[in-house]
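Quick illustration, no need to memorize.
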Amino acid sequence: MTKGNVKNTVLLVNPWIHDFAAYDFWIKPLGLLYLGALLRANGCRVTVVDCLNPFATDTLQPVRRPLPRRSSFGEGKFFKEEIKKPSCLRGIPRRYHRYGITPNVLRQELSRLAPPDVIMVGSMMTYWYTGVIATIEILKETFPGVPIVLGGNYVRLSAEHARANSGADLVVTETAEEALPYLLREFFHREASFLPLTGKLDSLPYPAFDLLARCDQVPVMTSRGCPFHCSYCASNILNPRFLRRDPICVTDEIQVWRERHGITNFSFYDDALLIRPDELIVPLLKEIIRRNLRCQFHCPNGLHLKEVTTDIAHLMFAAGFRTIRFGFETSDLDRQTETGGKANNDDLRRAVAYLKKAGYKAEDIGVYLLCGLPGQSADEVQESIDFVASCGARPVIAEYSPIPGTALWEAAVAHSPYPIADEPLFHNNTLLPCCGKNLTGENYQRLKLMTRSRGASISQNRAGV
């Protein structure tokens, strides 16, 4: 590419998910849209193609299906089609799907575009990489010769695998703002005219949600990283520094999406939303209430129980926090310490009591319990389910997925019957990749049924059945 040819056009692509199961728990390509906003701020023409677009009605025409069911909160099902399983997963007795628009719809969307100067593709879970590869194959077929850059969590956690297998011309392990100067020099032969301040999240432009064909909810970033170092979590790998935004700036952003774009549902995926509450969550909640924004907020990622007080519980309820999930992981005292010590049994009892006093019902208070940790027994998971239910909350099983570079990784490699160090497809939590004789697939199905029955019991009690 020569200087005279530079058009400063960028195509951003959010790839497919390939998996046994997937659900849209307020998923949006936030990192890719921050990159889009930064590129626009530097004079580039940016287009986004989202392979996970749940509103692409063209996908449904050949088979005459209704749109996948969506809730009024902005979450729901993806369109899916069964596809051939990768060879290493053929022994798994479950169907495998491509989630998102069909390949024909993707080709149609791409055919409407002029060839861009560069294509930048995002990524999420390591074990979704076959969806990335399939997306890149069609991009290369449609736009031969156009360079393709790949970034995102898969790349940052399994960079060598991505370089060897993805088909991308360049693999980028940095955040959007860190990679931006290099990308502009490499593809447009110029320096950045706008860069956010290092370590200042509020100097980033708002992510480019307006480039999506349709948007029914917006995830809002209030921080990056986490002060905890839980042994199963990749937060400190992906974001070594714990950075936070100003709560007034966060509220300003929510108000912009609310008033200018009509968005009423917002999600928070932050790893430490409630940590040091006087710095962020308390002033944020008070400002949302003061401005009377009338929105609904959802926290699917697991909030910290230890920080819940009676005041915070009342503020959350008054501000419109509707979907609340907490990371508890286990009621086993030794494992609580081993995995990071972020919450204990007393923390759960106390938090649930405060939340109920504020107006939340038992079925509203979802508590994540990890299942399938290296060396974990079925008895431990069952005791944890019983304990959460006894506290008056709803147990939610979260299957453990081994993540390269975390403190538990070596133990996971040692315990897993799969070659997880060589093949990211075996990181898939659906496989329970670290189960052993003390927690079998049969045990797991029994535990899942138990959590469902507990959830049904909680709902019946609420309805007075």
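DSSP finds 15 helices and 16 strands in the chain.
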